[in-house]
Amino acid sequence: MDFFSPDYWTQDFIIEVVGVITGLLCVALAARQNIWTFPVALVSVVLYIYVFYEAKLYADMGLQVMFAILNFYGWYMWLHKGNQRVERPVTQTTKRQWGYLAVLVPLFTVGLGYFLHTKTDADLAFWDAGTTAVSLGAQWLMSRKKLENWLVWIVVDAVYVPIYLYKELYPTAGLYFIYLGLAWWGYVDWKKSMKKGQELAARG
User: Fold this and answer.
1) Mapped to the 3 state alphabet, what secondary structure does 79-128 carry?
2) pTM for the whole thing?
3) Membrane spanning segments where (predicted)?
4) For helices 58-79 and 37-54, angle between their N-to-C axes, nearest 10 degrees
5) Is the dihedral of CA 77, 82, 85, 86 positive or negative?
6) How does pLDDT run along the chain (204 residues), one tens digit per residue?
7) How far apart, in whole angstroms, are the C-alpha atoms of residue 12 and residue 175?
8) What is the number of other CB atoms lying within 10 angstroms of the CB of residue 1?
């Protein structure tokens, strides 16, 4: 089908494209530690609830709902450190936090994957559940401004690309391919910010 043909630009395709644009913008803002990442992300989330419902990727659809909740949580967390209304610094993920993820991500994957496989007409049920579980972990780490969230995103985005190509969600596959570069940029930028903060703290 001709990309420039009016028949190509269906409602579903337009919604997906706008979701791609807002998705790119929110990740770029997150990489720069810009608080506007959260309201922009909420727009993208709403659009992708529709996109993934139409694609029968129900875990990804549910993931967007969780993203909405975690975006409100992250919005608050970025603006508060403890009970103080000061910007939260970038820190590294603790062993305890990695432990939580190591237990909860597999359990969530198996439980949700089984439910989707047996109770719904979901496509790629266990892959959908697994990427959802890892994405939730990455978003939780981002909400707490943990440096390694970007490394987790790189791993899960690399899996998302072929899934979305298989589902013929080509703009979304392209989005997640670009996310790989943005996630690395975010990691490098946040690492510099963390080191700068540590140096300032050491100076007293």
Assistant:
1) HCECCECCCCCCECCCHHHHHHHHHHHHHHHHHHHHHHHHHCCCCCHHHH
2) 0.83
3) 13-31, 38-55, 61-78, 98-118, 173-190
4) 170
5) negative
6) 455 555 556 788 889 999 999 999 999 999 999 999 999 999 999 999 999 998 888 888 988 999 999 999 999 999 877 666 667 899 999 999 999 999 999 999 999 999 999 998 888 899 989 999 999 999 999 999 999 999 999 999 999 999 999 988 898 899 999 999 999 999 999 999 999 988 887 876
7) 16
8) 6
Q: Which amino acid is at 39?
A: P
Q: Token pair for residue 94? A: 């603790």
Question: In the structure encoding, which two tokens stand for residue 87, read together?
Answer: 């910007």
Single-letter amino acid code for the residue at 156: V
Structure tokens at 136: 């939730």
